[in-house]
Amino acid sequence: MIDFKGAHYPQSVILLAVYFYVRYGVSYRDLEEIMAERGVTVDHATLNRWVVKYSPEAARVAQKRKASTAESWRMDETYIKVRGEWVYLYRAVDRDGQTLDFMLSKRRDTKAAKKFFANALYNNGIPKRITIDKSRSNAAGIKEVNKIFKRLSIPIKIDTVCSKYLNNMIEQDHRFIKRLTRPMLGFKSFASAAATLAGVEAANMIRKGQLGQLKCGFRQFAELAG
After folding, report:
1. Is the pTM of this model over 0.90?
2. How many domains does the chain contain in total?
């Protein structure tokens, strides 16, 4: 359950603003105007605080509630600009295009890949295979995970498939995320970028129907608050 203690606006108003921002891709100035047209006077700085505070919580609950995914994964990273610098958004979907996991990283190396895979395995279980592009760091990250399995005497080995063709699915999925973040006019800090992107990913899971039969998207988002 998301804690709204101390909030000066109704929970429904806060959630509507956060959902609208992470689902439809608008600037905070635009969202301020949209809320005003609905009779809610709230400045863009407050809207930003809401998104940064509540988006990660919604994503955490969505991760727990999403439907089971397939054992064949597609993994890749894309670029996000923060304070004029490029950082890396690691993402994975299954063979059906369902979102598995995501992680924003300041670096694109074996350590970052290993951390991403560790989180993805914890949240989604162990896949039979992971398809990647020709990234050496991603291949090395999977190799490190397999080494850990071996040290722990776990009789499992994740197969690595390098195929740009098979990875077209996640590259197309990247485009949806980038289409939403473009009107946001950039991020001022790594923390705010990570929080906002978590909300975008949660809204994307709802759009894909991963939290159950799709009804009203906002209603499903609001249900994440408990």
Report:
1. yes
2. 2
